[in-house]
Write a structure and sequence with these properties.
The chain has 8 helices and no strands. The longest helix is centred in the last third of the chain and has 22 residues. About 11% of the residues have low confidence.
Length: 166
């Protein structure tokens, strides 16, 4: 793979790599460093990338593994996700509704932080990144059934947190 092919096939994943790294590391500077490190690793293995069946899943798996290694090395817990990754579109006119939506989003983010690491990863990949189960399986190394069970448990915990707080 030459530079031109790398730019066409790998660079478009930059935002996804950064969002996943930011979500896992909860630190913008660390996420930027991780994003650069992922690109360096991919560039160093560019000759092997042509044999990869699903490049997006592979790139996100490299990202996830790198971030988990960083977390283990630094022995850190996940912190707050950068507010620039709001899932809720802010197109509402009513400021009270906007505030309610932001509060709800913050509440859900806080509850996601409390989930076990695998459930956090799966709910992020499925509900935020909107990946298919087979892609998540390639990233996490779990089978689709285990992913569905983890996703169901994660969503149930968030619903339980939500119903107990309201």
């Amino acid at each position: 793979m030459d530079l031109h092919q790398f730019e066409i096939q790998i660079l478009p994943f930059k935002d996804k790599i950064f969002r996943l790294a930011l979500f896992l590391l909860s630190d913008k500077a660390e996420a930027e460093d991780a994003t650069q490190e992922v690109f360096v690793r991919l560039w160093n293995h560019k000759n092997n990338l042509s044999s990869v069946e699903n490049i997006q899943a592979f790139v996100l798996r490299v990202t996830r593994n790198l971030c988990l290694d960083k977390l283990r090395t630094l022995n850190r817990r996940q912190e707050e996700v950068d507010s620039s990754n709001n899932v809720v579109e802010e197109t509402m006119v009513n400021p009270h509704e906007q505030t309610e939506q932001r509060n709800l989003l913050d509440f859900v983010k806080q509850q996601i932080k409390l989930l076990p690491e695998m459930q956090r990863t799966i709910i992020t990949l499925r509900d935020i990144e909107e990946l298919e189960f087979d892609e998540i399986a390639q990233i996490t190394g779990l089978n689709e059934n285990a992913i569905k069970v983890n996703l169901s448990r994660a969503r149930k915990k968030i619903r339980d947190y939500f119903s107990s707080e309201r």
